[in-house]
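S.,

As promised, the LLMBWK7S run. Input:
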Amino acid sequence: MNITITEDDRGLSDALNRFCQDVIAPKAADIDEGSLSATCHRQALSDIGIMGMNLPGAYSGTGASAVALYLAVENLAGACGSTASMVTAHFLATDSILLGGTEEQKQAWLPDAASGRTLGAFALTEPSAGSNPAAMRTFAEKTAAGYRLRGVKHFISNAAEADFLIVYAKTDKSAGHRGISAFIVDRHSAGVTVASPERTMGLKGGHVFEVALDCEVPAENLLGGVEGTGFRTAMQVLDNGRVEIAASCTGIARAAYEAALFWANTREVNNHPIGEFQGLQWMIADMATDLEAARMFGLKAATKREAGERFSVESAMAKLYASEAAGRITDKALQIHGGYGYTREMPLERYVRDVRIMRIYEGSSEVQRNIIARTALNG
Ligand SMILES: CC(C)(COP(=O)(O)OP(=O)(O)OC[C@H]1O[C@@H](n2cnc3c(N)ncnc32)[C@H](O)[C@@H]1OP(=O)(O)O)[C@@H](O)C(=O)NCCC(=O)NCCSC(=O)CCS(=O)O
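Predicted complex:
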C-alpha cells in the first residue's frame, strides 16, 4: 500500500504545527503542573478549525483527509498531550454521530460541534465493563416519551464541560452486544451527575470523570433511530480513535526525541558533546527507528481509513506499536537527560507520564493484540 501525503496535507500540517508551537505548547507545563483543564484552548482550537477536523464540510467540518487529521493530532500532542486528549475525546463523540446517526441528527448536532460551540464526550466504559463493553450494565428503558437511562459510566473525558454525551446503553439485556444502543444525551439534563475529575498520573489537563445517569432522553436522540446498533458504531468509532491515539503517541515521542537530540548535541562531558559517545548514539538510533515505524503504522491506517476500507487491524497495530514505542522513546529521552530529565524543570518526565495511559485507554495493548491475532488466525 502506498502512503501518500499530499501537498495539501503537508501545508495544513505545517500551518497547524506553527499554531501548536506558538499557542498550545507554551501553556503545556502549567496545564500539567496545575491540573488545569485543556479546554482553556477550546476557543483557539475552534478558531483554527481543529474541533471539526474529523468532519466533512457538509456538517461544517474542515473536510481534511484522514492523513491530514493524523498529522494534526501528532502536532497537537507534541505541543500538549492533554489538549490532544481533550480534542480526540470530542472526535469520539462527533464520530459516533457521523457514523451512527441519522441525517437529521447529523444536521442537528454536528455543525455546532465542528465549530467548537459545543463539546462532546463518549460514554462507553463502565466501572465493571472496560475491555469488554458488551458487559455494560447501563440500561435504557423505553418510556412514553423516549427512554430512561440508568447506570454509571467511568473514565469519561470532557464530561464536566461537555454539552452532549454519547451514551452507550443496553436496550435489550438478553441480546449481548446486539442489545446495545447509543443515545445523544444533553449533559445538562436532569439526572446527569458528573463527579470531580479523577486524579491521574499524566494527561493532567485531559480531565476524566465518573458520570451517574438517571435521566430521560427523547426518542429522537436514539442514535440512528434504531435499537441494537450501538456496539457496531462504538467499534467503528474506536477504529478511528485508535489511529488518533497512535498519532498522539507519535507526537509526544517526537517531542521527547527532539529534546534528546538537542541535549545530546549540547550537553558536554570532558569537553565532548554526549552525542559523540556510542552508547548514546545507539539509544538515538533505536528512538529514531521506533519513531519512524510508529509513524508508518499510523499513516498506513490513516491511508486505509481515507480509502473507505475497513482498517480495524491497521488501527490496532498502529495504536499497539505507537503506544509501546512512545513508552520506550520517552523513557530513553529522559535517561539521556540524566538527573535533569527527572526534574519538573524539563518536560521529559511529563512526556513519560503522559504516554503511559496510551497503552490502556481506547483499548489496552492486550485488546489490540486480541484484535490482531483474531484476524491473523481467522482471516
Ligand atoms: C476486544 C473487542 C474488539 C471484542 O469485541 P467482541 O468479541 O465482544 O465483539 P466481536 O465479536 O468482535 O464483534 C461483535 C459485532 O461487532 C462487529 N464489529 C466488531 N468490531 C467492529 C469494527 N471495528 N467495525 C465494525 N464492526 C465491528 C462485529 O462484526 C460483530 O457484528 P455482528 O453482531 O456479528 O453483526 C471489543 O470488546 C473491544 O474493542 N474492547 C475494547 C473496548 C475499548 O476500547 N474501550 C475503550 C473505551 S473509550 C476510552 O477508553 C476513552 C474514552 S475517553 O477518552 O473519554
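The chain has three domains: 7-115, 120-228, 232-378. Residues 7-115 form a domain with the Butyryl-Coa Dehydrogenase, subunit A; domain 1 fold (CATH 1.10.540.10).

- D.
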